Structures are given as C-alpha cells and as structure tokens.
TrEMBL record, chain B:
Gene3D superfamilies in alphabetical order: P-loop containing nucleotide triphosphate hydrolases
Protein name per the record: ABC transporter ATP-binding protein
ABC transporter domain sequence ranges: 9-229
Organism, as annotated: Streptomyces chilikensis
One Pfam family from the record: ABC_tran
Amino acid sequence: MSLSTGERPRTWPTAPAPGRRSRIRRVAADLAMGVRFAFTGGREGWTRAVLTAVGVGLGVALLLLTTALPHALGVRQEKEAARTDITFTGRWLPKADDTLVVANVGSDFRDDSIRGRALEPEGPRAPLPPGVERFPAKGEMVVSPALQELLESDSGALLRERLPDRIVGTIGESGLIGPAELAFYQGAEGLAPHIDSGRIVRIDGYGDPNATSERSDPVLLLLILVVFVVLLMPVVVFIAAAVRFGGERRDRRLAALRLVGSDSGMTRRIAAGEALAGAMLGLVFGAGFFLAGRRLAGTAEVFHISVFPSYLSPSPLLALLVAVAVPTAAVLVTLLALRGVVIEPLGVVRAGRPPRRRLWWRLLLPLAGLAMLYPMIGDGRDNGDFNQYLVAGGVVLLLVGVTALLPWIVETAVARLGAGGVAWQLAVRRLQMSSGTAARTVNGIAVAVAGAIALQMLFTGVEDDYTRSTGQDVAWAQVEVTLPNAVPVAPAAEKLRNTKGVNEVYDYSEGHLGDRARDPQAGTTVTVGGCSVLREIADLPSCADGDVFAVHGAERDTGVDVAKLAAPGRTLYLDPSYEGGPKSLEIPWTVPQDVKTANPRHALLAGTDRGGILITPKAVPDTLTPALQGHAYLRLDESVPDVHDRVRNTAAAVDPLANTVTWAQTERTGRFDAIRTALLVGAACVLALIGASLLVSQLEQLRERKKLLSALVAFGTRRRTLSLSLLWQTTIPITLGLLLATAVGLTLGTVLLKMTATTVRVDWSSVLAMTGIGAAVVLTVTLLGLPSLLRLTRPEGLRTE
Amino acid sequence: MTPPAGSLLWAEQLRKAYGPTLALDGAEFSIHPGEVVAVMGPSGSGKSTLLHCLAGIVTPDAGTIMYGGRELSAMSDAERSALRRSEFGFVFQFGQLVPELTCVENVALPLRLNGSSRKEAERAALTWMERLEVDELRKKRPGEVSGGQGQRVAVARSLVTNPRVLFADEPTGALDSLNGERVMELLTDAARSTDAAVVLVTHEARVAAYSDREIVVRDGRSRDMERAV
C-alpha cells in the first residue's frame, strides 16, 4: 500500500513531552490549580467557596473593626477635647470682645443624654463652638441632626416642650462625637451674673489648653488588654474553622487528582492553593463587610455610643498584618489538617482508628500560660503597669490550651459513653469516629466562654474600686432640682408639686456665709426652709416660722466653730468674695439674739450631715434672696409614664438654667463603664459570629451526608430520631466544652484577681449566665439547622440523575 | 382496573415529574410474593423513580399503587415510613451504610428502629451476617471493608426485618463482576428462602438474569418482557 493512494498511516495522537519547569514555577502552577478548583465545580463549588469566604470574611471584618476601634475612640476623645468649654480650672476672665459666656444646659430625655449649651457672646471675636457657623440669637438654637430628627418626631413631642427655641441650623460633624449624639447650642442673654456657679463660665476659646492625660491605671489597662485578647481569640479560632469548610469534598477531589498522577506534595500544594483562594476571597468579603458595617455604623448606636464612618479607619500596619496573617493561617491550618489524612488515588484514607491524642503537650500550653502570669501575682495597682507582653502571652496560651485540651477531653469522654437509643447511638458513634471535628466545632464557644468568665470575675472583683456610693437615698427622693441663684424656690416648688407624677416636694435654699466680706477665715452653710424640711436636715429642739438655728458639731463643719461663728449679734456675710475672683454680693446678715442650737443628723436631703445655720422663711430678710440657691427634692410616682421628663420640662420652664439630676445609689468611673460596655458589644459580636460559623459547619456536614440521611429515611428512620441524634451530637461536645471553659475561666479569673491583689470571689450567677449564653447559642444553631435536616432527608435525596 | 390475583404489589398509570422532566409517564407494575422482577432500562429512563414510587419513598403525581390490598399512594408519610421499616427492605448501589456504626450495628439498625433491644437486634443481625458470609466483619466499620463485603452487609441489613418486598437499586453497580455475582446469588437465595418479593433495578443483563421476570422502562413507560428460555 502506498501513500499515493490517498490513505494516511493510522497513528494515535501523541501526548506532549512533560515540561521542564523550575520548582518555583511548579509550586506556583500547583497553587494556581488549587485556586481554580476552589471556584469550579458548578453551583456546589461556588457555594462552598462563598461559604468559606463568608466565614473568613466575617472574621476579617471583626479583626479590621478591632484594629479600627482604638482610632475611632481616639477621634471621639479628640473631638470631645476640642469642644471643651467648662474646664473647672477656676480661671477667671474679665469680659472682653473675644469672650463668650457658656452655660451647661444639658439634660436627659428618657435614657439618652443631651449635651446642651446656652451661649452669650460678649464681643464680635467671641469663639464659635466647633461645628457651628454662627451664634444663635436668644430664642434660637442650632442642633445636632439626631436631635433635630427627634424633635420633629412624635416621640420627641415632650422634649420639644423643653426646647421650644427655633432651630436655625445644625451642628456640623466637627462639633459632634457621633452621628447619634443629641446636642444643641441655644442663644441666651443675662448669663454673666451667674458666672462661677460651676455650670456657667466665661471663656475665650474652646479646648482645654491645660489638658493632661489621666495617669494610667494598671488595673484598667489590664482589663483593656484582657478584653482585647479574650475577644480576638475566638475570632482566630473561628477563622481556623472557617477555612476547613468543605474539607471532605476537597479530600475526595484531591484523591481524584492522585489518580491522574499528582504526587502527595502536589496534592498538598493544590490544597494550599484552594485554602489560599478561600482566604483571599474571604479578605475581599471581609473588606466589603467592614466597609458596609462602617456605613451602617453611621446610622447605628450601640450602648449609647455612635461613631461617624470616617472614624472607623484601621491602622494601615494592622490592616496589612491582617491581610498577610489570614491567608497564611488558612494555608497552615489546611496543611495541618491534611497531616491526619492520607490521600490515595483510590480515595481518602483516614486511619480507622487514629492514634490516641496525647495529653502531655496539651497540658503544657495552659501551664505555660499560668507560668507567664505567675510572676505578676500580688503586684496590685501600686507597682506600675503590668507587663503587657506577659499578660497577653499568658492569656493567649491559657485560652489556646482550651482548644488543645478539648479534643482530648471529647475523645476520652465519648470513648466511654455507653449504649442508648438509636439517636444516642448514631450521635455517640459519630462523635467517636470524628471527635476532632466535634471539638473544633465548639472550640470557639468554649474559648469565648472561658474568656468571658475570667473577665466577669475580674470586673466583679475590681468593681467596688470603681464604684462609689452617692449617699443618696432613692427611696426618699428620686430627683433633685437645683435652681440658679436668686430664683425663688417656693414658686418653683409649687410648679414642681403640680407636675403629673410628683408625689412630694421638699424645697430649701442655701448659700455660703463667711465671717468677712472678703477672703473669710471661717464660713459655713446657711439653709433656708420650712420647719418640716429643716427637720430633715438636723435635730431641732422645736421649730416655728421665724426661728434661726445654729447646728453645732456637724461633720461637714469640721474645723469650724459654729457656736463662735454664729454668736448672737455677730455680722456675717452671705456670698463673700475671694482674692483673684470677681466681686461677689457680700450681703451682710446679723445673727439674731434668739438663735437656737440644733444637733446634726445624717440628713436625708444631702446624704451627709449638713450643719451650718438654718433659717425659717420669716426670719430671712429680702436682701439675702439674691445670694441663695434653691433646691427641690422630689418623690415621684414612677409608674406615671415619662415622669422624669415631665419634671425636667417643669424645671426648664421655671428657669432654663435649672439643673435636674436623677438620683442613683451608686456611681461608677466612666472609663470602667466604657470598658464593660466594650466587652458587652464585643462579646455579642463574637458570639453571633461563632453562632454563624457553627451553623455553616453544621449545614455543611448535613449536606455531606445528604445521601446517607435520605437512605436512612428510606428504610424508615423517623426524622425525629435523626433530629435528636443531631442534638446529641452538638450537646455532648458543648457540655464538655463548657465544663472545660468554666474550669479554665475560673482559673484565669483567679490568677487575674490575684495579680490585681483583689480578694478572689466567684460570681456563680455570671458563670452560669456565660455558660448559659454559650449553650443557648448552640441550641439555637441546632434548631436553625433542623429545617435543613428535614429538607435533606427528603426521599428526593436518593435521586442521582 | 383491579390488581391481578395474588399480586403483592401492583401499580398502574404512574406519572411523576421533576420540574419539567417527566420521569414516569403511565408506568405499570406488579409482583407476586417470592417473585424476583428486574426493572431494566437506560440511564434516566425512570427505573429508579419507579422503584422509589413503589417503595413509598416518593409519591407519584398520578396513578395508583396497591400493596397487600391497601392503597400505598393514599397513605400518609408516617404510614409509609412505618411500612418501609417493617415490611420493606432496601439495598442501594453504594450500600449507604452508616460510616460511624460497626457492620453489625448497621445490620441491626432497622430492627432497633422498630423498637427491638440492642442485644436482640444484634443477635438477629449476626445470624444474617453469617448467612451472607460477612460475620467476621461484625466489629469493623464500613470504611474498613471492601466494596463487595460492604454490599453484602447492606443486603444483610435489608433482610434483617424479614421484609415482604426487597427493593434493590443497582445493587451491583459499584462491584466487579465476581463480587456482583456473589452478591446477587446471596440476595436472591435469601429472598426466595423467606418468600420475599424482589424489585431489582439494574441496567445489566447479567444481573437481570437472576430475575423471574423483566420489565423494561423507557421514557417513563414500562413494558413486560417475555423471557426467552
């Protein structure tokens, strides 16, 4: 046969010769193939990639938020400092063309605070507050956008009564510390005579030039540090779990690759490429979530804190660290996970009985953590700041110890679990076969609960140091109204008495008496009130209108001989002047001859014994009135809706400068409360995140077992049995996880308390609350997974075409 | 139309659609106690859907299925589940054994679902495992046994409740010919010995050869084939 006949020789196509590529290019090609695999595989492939990316993205967003928070809080502080007007420095300024009189007319509306200032410019160069373009005239005000919205809404009608001024503008972002802040500046006249009352000052500029940062409190710094570590650890654990979503399917795919000739090194690199793709997409998602969250932050308020989106800018260095650390961690976790798996061409081999987990190195982690914290035990707050590296390292190791110990505990415990019903058997056998997966699922919750228990212990332990009793008896009165000087108290009290929800009003006026008109050597308080009110202040022998009393030996008058000061016929001066300050009223008053003696008592009206001189109304000459300041104490019927705001409205109608204070038994340091609030916000975010991760992982496991579940239902297994089995599968590891978390949390809490030299006390209710919240998250996730279980066990699951 | 005399399971005019795809379009079927019927046809012809309808796993859109004088298609989901637990047995292509349970626990599972005690169920399970020559695997998990062994364990599981009808969907599809033949021998012998009817879905003629009668499904319609002897 010759070629000329037109027939061609029959040959098979030959395969191209294997390429000779450098090792780096080979690794890159394997990684790229992994990246491709992450996004191929149709709908399922995409779903898996998106689930991983959502998981990693949520973690990344939280990490970015954490890196942005210090900046956001810093900007809030800077803004607050820039608009500071009342500095309590005692500096007295004379009136000039660049001065401004500012009165604090802030108030509360329901649970919100309203920052309010009345402004009276004294010259053309008076300083404008930040964010305000021109001074409002009397009867006008400029308000924050949030306050404007509130005033224009139906729910703000009651507040509108208190702030009836015409709105002529809004305060710009530079004058506010958050978009939800309620603030206003109103025009005022005649403020100058009231300067020096503490709430009214003359200034020539905003900002506190002598601002000094508070000395750092070692215990507060320790709290902040531990809060950060405790909140970030579960996020890291969560990310580690998220990059393992879809692991079983990936292993099968890798086995198929082995079949067509990829060696085990290539397989691992391809797996790393897949993980890298998920993590990178997660970074993109995370940045997206963060930006969306940032926009949302402009409209949300959490625990009365709001921030402008522009405040939430992560530090570039920390953001870079997140961008590098997350993909690296994803690859490392994947390679670590592949250690226990042998991928063979004919399938994935997981050793039927993997080697038992060893306890010794798992115990080393928490022990090393304790060893790092141990040298700081007993330091207290008097030995400077705690070593933050040792604190962070110690806490991290203790919490990482939870994630290391939990798989061992779950494995050991479930190996001993006996027989039970079918649901129990299915659950226990599954746990025995893959206790590591079960432990990983609850690791995040266990770490979060352990950290939260420790923090709660620390907070409860040091709470007393940051809380002081106000001495106010809230059973006796709930609100105190203080009037500006010279405003008569009796008519004001009458108006308050007629306010809906006010049951009783105790009113009196007070001033300061000195032995000299200027720079007095001795002085005391003068209180003017009816006999019934004066009896609440001191033990009176008898009382009739027209009587005057001198209270001897009161604690408040320590160092003052009231008997000598109030000698009959002696002239004293109400509102004396002091060197360096403006001239006061210096009103002379002569002690009457028939002045009576009274004994001090722990006064209900002020929390302490008051002492001084007590005068009934008929004995007060009119000349004293301008120097007296009125006070009213109100007992309320708290069941009347908005009773506190009705009282504030009445007080503001009496005089806009009236100060209304709601009584409380205790008050806490603002920074302590702020840290506690941050913990609550963070813990809520972390638990929601872990809940979402648990749900994703549970749904994925269910999807992996779709065919098996359908087969079980096909031969008659009740769905109730499968649901119960799912519940057991979650309940057993979470119970073990929470027990371990409680033990580690209590240990860490004890160590932290000993470091602060505080008595160790366990607040079992908060331990129960924390473990309860952890358990509730798991239960909720299981319940949310049930509809999927029911859907996946439909007989249609058996279809293959 | 009334069921043929003596038939255990009978269906007529079955229609079932999955979205726009018509899986069954007027299929018919009947089987007597102790009979082995092979349902044959190409991939996607509707044979598995027919099996799922006959077993009460899915309900047809139209048509009637009678089992032991009761209308299966009119039963509630709970009633059909109870029927599957007590009177039907199943073998699937990949065994679908629960990977976490040992082989004996897998075989005992249907009995335990029916309320038997663990000991009682495992004793019965072992008897069937011995009969299917897999009793030495009782403590092993499905991941530790071969495909053929796993399928024999699955057959044991399908027979442990002494079902009146055994549904086998491509029971040898994942096995080599030797193992496939061994599984089919054991399955049909065991079924005949207990007078169980077998509905055998397959596309392999050599597997269908174990049946007494063949039904061919094509485009959702069924046709009884005369067997050439």
